[in-house]
Fold N-acetyl-gamma-glutamyl-phosphate reductase.
Amino acid sequence: MNPQMDDTGQKIRVAVVGASGYTGMELLRLLINHPAVEITALTSESYADSPIEEVLPSLFGMLKLTCKKFDPREVAKHADVVFLAVPHKTAMAAAVELLPLGVKVIDLSADFRLRDPAVYRQWYGADHAAPELLKEAVYALPEFYRQQLTTARLAAAPGCYPTAVLLGLFPLLKREVVDPCSLVIDAISGASGAGRKLDLPLHFAELEGNVKAYKVACHRHMPEIEQELSRCIGRDVMVTFTPHLVGTVRGILATITATLVTSKDVKELRTLYQSWYQDEPFVRILPDGRFPETKQVRGSNFCDIGLAVDARTRRVIVVVAIDNLVKGASGQAIQAMNVMMGLDERTGLRLPPLFP
Amino acid sequence: MNPQMDDTGQKIRVAVVGASGYTGMELLRLLINHPAVEITALTSESYADSPIEEVLPSLFGMLKLTCKKFDPREVAKHADVVFLAVPHKTAMAAAVELLPLGVKVIDLSADFRLRDPAVYRQWYGADHAAPELLKEAVYALPEFYRQQLTTARLAAAPGCYPTAVLLGLFPLLKREVVDPCSLVIDAISGASGAGRKLDLPLHFAELEGNVKAYKVACHRHMPEIEQELSRCIGRDVMVTFTPHLVGTVRGILATITATLVTSKDVKELRTLYQSWYQDEPFVRILPDGRFPETKQVRGSNFCDIGLAVDARTRRVIVVVAIDNLVKGASGQAIQAMNVMMGLDERTGLRLPPLFP
Amino acid sequence: MNPQMDDTGQKIRVAVVGASGYTGMELLRLLINHPAVEITALTSESYADSPIEEVLPSLFGMLKLTCKKFDPREVAKHADVVFLAVPHKTAMAAAVELLPLGVKVIDLSADFRLRDPAVYRQWYGADHAAPELLKEAVYALPEFYRQQLTTARLAAAPGCYPTAVLLGLFPLLKREVVDPCSLVIDAISGASGAGRKLDLPLHFAELEGNVKAYKVACHRHMPEIEQELSRCIGRDVMVTFTPHLVGTVRGILATITATLVTSKDVKELRTLYQSWYQDEPFVRILPDGRFPETKQVRGSNFCDIGLAVDARTRRVIVVVAIDNLVKGASGQAIQAMNVMMGLDERTGLRLPPLFP
Amino acid sequence: MNPQMDDTGQKIRVAVVGASGYTGMELLRLLINHPAVEITALTSESYADSPIEEVLPSLFGMLKLTCKKFDPREVAKHADVVFLAVPHKTAMAAAVELLPLGVKVIDLSADFRLRDPAVYRQWYGADHAAPELLKEAVYALPEFYRQQLTTARLAAAPGCYPTAVLLGLFPLLKREVVDPCSLVIDAISGASGAGRKLDLPLHFAELEGNVKAYKVACHRHMPEIEQELSRCIGRDVMVTFTPHLVGTVRGILATITATLVTSKDVKELRTLYQSWYQDEPFVRILPDGRFPETKQVRGSNFCDIGLAVDARTRRVIVVVAIDNLVKGASGQAIQAMNVMMGLDERTGLRLPPLFP
């Protein structure tokens, strides 16, 4: 029942390093039906030598591969593109070994997102292993770095929060519609964003029915957001960023509040967004009176954006929803691969959301 | 972004009558990516004249059709196959009008599942509008009625509970391994099985975190299960069937307990199931020590089966999981359509489960 | 098993008008164990003449009263204090009839919260039925209007969002620590805040797993928040208020961002809050590094407050958690009753949260 | 705000050994408001020397005690009654040390439930450390061993599944209404029953929305159920027991199917149950057509029982709901303490369920 059998043509051979975590298994869910791709190698340190269908029972009968311990030569021999779905620090070490072997690398960790090694050290508590690669890595938000991705050898898939925030804010900042000093961002995430590593706050009985803020004004995605916003307008931007965790699995909802430089009504702003994103296959600007819901994008690569203006306080409120494991991680990584490999960017990603 | 554009070839034109309910929207989710199908018409009484992307925001940008009030001539003009995703009683009336117009009809309601009009009246409180069509209708469980489906004009997609129970029990009954008088079935369903109609027990604050039994020994799927089990072995079978509702959305888990006629160990039984279902693309017999979980099939057309034997009491326990909206409704209906239209049965249904 | 039997002494006789909604049933849950109270009368229009233990199966065997249709004379005959747990508009009509009969009235609806009848009309779409009572009504946030409550005849229990926001903001505004023009409030609520009335967005399968913003910058609690903040500092305050709904039942988490007038560190602010609330039995100022979680207050009358400062942007972030049905509604109403009746304010409300 | 201060009178001094797990914290939630008890000592190996309000933030401000490492002399010095809320094996070692020091011990683990040391070894994989105490220990289901509890020094609080099953089955077996060879039990539990220890199947993203069977026909509560049923009728009883885990936190629902020895209608059976349990404060026999729901007992010590008869198959279906942490653990342990200490059995346990 492997759909890849149906197709002829030369397939792109891909490997997934770290197949047993949530972004790894989400890559597999999406790649299994990607018509231009053949999954050729999987690695997992915790499940080395286990068939993937034992590791991920949802894939039982769908993929006949066995996880191996990571060996860069072995991986590079079987793959044209390697996805790194391993924790930060591990990822940069793997990239350093893989790139000279001629493969393209798409890293889903944080290791190649921050351009400044000092900032990396400050937020991730380690020296960067490959500062020279930092310069080369392309920040894999295709809506803004598509051109650079076409020739990239190393892509850094953005964090989930930054994806939602940047797609929500870029049009306003680029058009100088809002005061960049006024940005207040509250974002809500489900538990899958924290990964599969056991931790008491992620224990079912603790999190179910719970709503809380965490890492208030000190989350690692804050410098990533600020870096990209600053690049966007060419000067330093600082934001107040408060992430929240609720008892759901998938989805990020970001609510961004900003002060308008000059009065604008919501219709003008919607027109701006619609025109800005008119050719983007995965960004949906919602009509008047409708706001994004995480469940309306669940399992899909969509980023939904809704807009409101509080004329009294002259503030705009931008609400953005993505599935953190798809547009916020694995789907975006595949979208980047499509660009890097010259495919139609939508290939394998035309998935309607799973609702209800 | 309509994937149907990519393909040439003559497409099967399909209409969905009742597009705004859960089985209707699930048909759309699956059919949008079905390579041999073109969705040509949608009806909805509650949302007549609304674009489907307003009715179902998850499909925003994916399907450019407007819901109409049901008009059989209009539907038949645009479709080769019509799915009826409307409540019982409404469905049989629609089928009576549609069939003479030359379309094939696949009914997801209960209207053509019970062969005996008297049983229908007893359980659904109405005279059957087309008893002669009852004789013609094929019970659309492809694993057992595939042959009959190839020539069917009218197919009755099985209920969600019966799908799980029948796939779990047929091998045991056919092979006379268990006593047909000993069947005790407890099944657990999520809320989507109850549909989109508002009702206090389905109000979020009431159901969240709740576990309960309902319609104990008097659920409408009981006579459907008994009819098919009786046909299976050629004599009357009665079961004790207790459905349960829990605070989840998708999934049915059926736990079936039966007394073995002669001692058998679990290995023998697994071999029986594996051989029985060896050519079935959607039935997965789980290995030793593994039991089905609804989340391992969510969003997919799989039916997972696990087995245990309590040697002390000489009972077998069969555990079955399906997604009630896919293998228990819309996926199965499409599987039936594939058979009826001579397509590869798996077309459009090779979906990995959405986990986590 | 009625605990009220154990006690002698003269009990306060209380009636609950609207016993079958969520705030009504929560009043019963709390009042059943209130040692100074006897529940003497219940009304419900939808369940008139039904025993309450049929209407609310959780109370089966705990309360032997039958719901009646609302009759002001009948209610006043049996009660010293009447809680109104009915929708707005209905509540003000009931208050008008009840007060002249000599009972004290505690209204949980919005009818007596807004002081200006014009603002009421603007936000609730109706003329106020008793503008003169508006002047008399005391806003029943005991932490700020305790003195006025001791002599009140009519109390207006605050909305759930306003309770969280006002308790979180008053110390900062009163002490002029933040710029009142800088207030951005994002709040997250569970579904019980929307009541028991059926509605598609509250249908289980729609809301489960969902996160969304709603009534962005136009929620009815916004003018209530602004009214009280303005009274607090003696001049007009406007806020940007974005409420969110997530798939949980109980709990509100409010995240308030404000710009500091002069630099302050979090320790100074915590000292301010601790001293401000030092005698308050239900406000808990969390220690350094800890932030509120809705589940840590579930079922209790606590209001938990956590603080952070983003020194770079000179903003303070205040996070507040309450159980919307307790401190945000019924618990607060009972706290107000305790004050109005000269009881220890904590009576009947010493409930540890239900965790996990 | 410690309610124990309000009362004079001599209090029973209680210690909780293992205060940081779910049954330990639930004991604290209930004991804090128990009017005849003073909590005097807490132990926790993982959180030794931490104030309990840091360990359990929900109790912040409610209990001013610090957890210590377990030292039997220290505990016995401060307590009349000791609750053991630690894992099996640890519990029996503690009991052996505590009993000679003159305290009463109530063990919430499995260590003193099974009378036969050989059965203990078979199911718990260890030799029993105190087989002589096994003979002395009273199985603390007050509805059946009340008399024995009045003089007990050592009580073994029943498992959560056994509590539900035994309360549901005893009347039928005692009255010889059903065939003891026909018992099929399917039970559904929330995650809190599995405790606070981290484990991948209890990781939020894995369990949320999931429904599964586990330990089919081999759960450790099966021999406990069989032991007590066998004692009940004086001969060996074997059951088929299939536990299920669903994505909720609190609650057990047990569905028991049994064959009637002679035909009986549901009315006769309800009369039997009502008369059997007429003096029991915590067992509620639901009226005709109503079935238990876990949420209708959540947070309370109630055990709700509903009944149905399938006359066609001559089977009775008994449905039972409890909160596994209350009637299935900590509430039941306190109920036992009340009996052992000569208090009104209901003291401290008159808690209405938390609904919704």
User: Anything to note?
Assistant: Chain B has two domains: 3-136, 161-324. Residues 1-7 of chain B have pLDDT under 50 and may be disordered. The interface with chain A takes residues 1, 3, 22, 25, 28-29, 32-33, 56-62, 192, 208-209, 249-250, 281, 284, 286-287, 290, 293, 295-300, 304, 346, 350-356 of chain B (CB under 8 Å).
